[in-house]
Amino acid sequence: MNESPKLNVLYVASEAAPLIKVGGLGDVAGSLPKALRKLMPDQLKGFALDVRLAIPFHAKITQKFSNLQLISSFFVPHPNGPIQARAFYTIVDDVPVYLIEGSSILTDQNVYSNDTNSDARKYIFFSLAAIELMKQINWNIDILHCNDWHTAISVYDMKLRRTQDLFFKNTKSVLSMHNLPYMGAGAESVIHDFGFSGCDCQGLPDWARHVPLPIGIYAADQLLTVSPTYSQEILTPEFGCGLQDFLESRKESVAGILNGIDQSIWNPSNDTAIHHNFDISTLENRVKNKLALQTEFGLGRDEKIPLVILISRMDQQKGIDIAINGLRQVMDQPMQIIFLGTGDPFIETSCRSLESEFPERVRAALRFDLNLSRRMYSGGDILVIPSRYEPCGLTQMIAMRYGCIPLARATGGLKDTITDQKDGEKNNGFLFENSDADSFSQTMRRALSKFDQAKIWRKLQINGMNTDFSWEKSAIEYAKIYLKLKGV
Ligand code: ADP
Known about the structure:
This protein is α/β, with parallel strands linked by helices. The chain has helices at residues 24-38, 59-62, 103-106, 116-136, 148-164, 188-193, 212-219, 228-233, 244-249, 286-296, 320-329, 345-357, 370-379, 395-401, 412-417, 437-451, 454-466, 471-486; strands at 6-12, 48-56, 69-76, 83-92, 95-101, 143-147, 172-177, 222-225, 254-256, 307-314, 336-343, 362-365, 382-385, 405-409, 430-432. The strands form 2 sheets. The chain has a 9-stranded mixed sheet with strand order 3-4-5-2-1-6-7-8-9, with helices on both faces. It is globular, with a radius of gyration of 23 Å. The two termini are 22 Å apart. 50% of the residues are buried. The mean pLDDT is 96. Adenosine-5'-diphosphate (ADP) binds at residues 23-24, 27, 311-313, 340-342, 368-370, 373, 393-395, 398.
């Protein structure tokens, strides 16, 4: 029997669940390779996809493992002398994973720091090591797929190396942009330290020629965003962060593929972190989770009062200030609110302020707590996502899967995944247009009025729970891009 020809893909990221997760990228890097590996040759023009993952061997991961298999010990070139790298191998959820270690990775306790310069030392080393490792283990990659600024230098290095090194001659590169404004500004001097003179591409603004993400954008064969709407938005001055003209010049190479969620991990019928499991046929059980949540937070136990939740990084991007001001305008309505998030101290303080203004009805849990997030998705009625921009967003999809209705700003992936209650049969949430408190509060009033209409609410829940957010659909789109780059 003929074996299917192989298509080898190295997926490179700074984080990947369940090994390490800080934000949405961790979810994506944890689930997409797994979904890609499940595709069969008949979905891939006869090819068998071999997708492997490379991430840094973060200190937090080392604590979870002992005795991993060391598969390679090698050096990453540096003008001041080569830097030692080691690679370990494991398999997670059927995905082969390379964990790359070096002194800059070992010494840092956090995945990301506030100091881009120190992150750059770690991630530029990792980016270069990931490519070198392929050569060391003699695994010929067809596609190098990198994510965000942290690994964008891999893409740039690949463009340089494949002109000089036959081993990489046919390797094509993909760069996914999960959040354009995070470009790695501050990494310029580290790029120079590693011996790169900066990119001389015409068309790239001067300020961008020494910054990791723009350099990767210049170098990548294919650019991707994580939703179709965001792929259009980044071509505009409002969302393009000064790169819109350059991106426009590369428009033919830009596409948007919606993220999915791992529906086996986010599943209210068997989620062990929630009090009462449920599915569409047992949706009435959901209210018990709400009552449990009210008890946990010392809120009045009342199934009739709408429970509004927010689960988010506390960052300017997420528009939490808009929600807080908007919520203040609707506090005349019966409503309880729980915030879960951590980040910008100023935003955290604003959540605390609302809590002290309405001590009977508002709670702020200012921390990162995965299990609590699950209890909130399973018991909250409305999840607010007031983002100023949102490349894709996962929380709206998770919420819908758990029968919690999203109320979100109509931007990026939120717009691609939520159909407003007033917009027809497939409606599964509420959208507001303008990035301001008035627009938010008007939509919140509309949502609260629908909450009282059980039939309408139940339909929204069922539509949301029935929406297919699985990775399989998106994985096929990624595979098509890989095959196109391979020239098949
Ligand atoms: P981003 O990647 O921009 O932070 P996403 O919506 O893409 O936003 O993904 C956020 C992910 O992180 C979701 O899985 C969400 O449930 C989770 N999350 C965010 N904040 C917290 C928190 N404080 N505790 C637990 N999980 C959180």
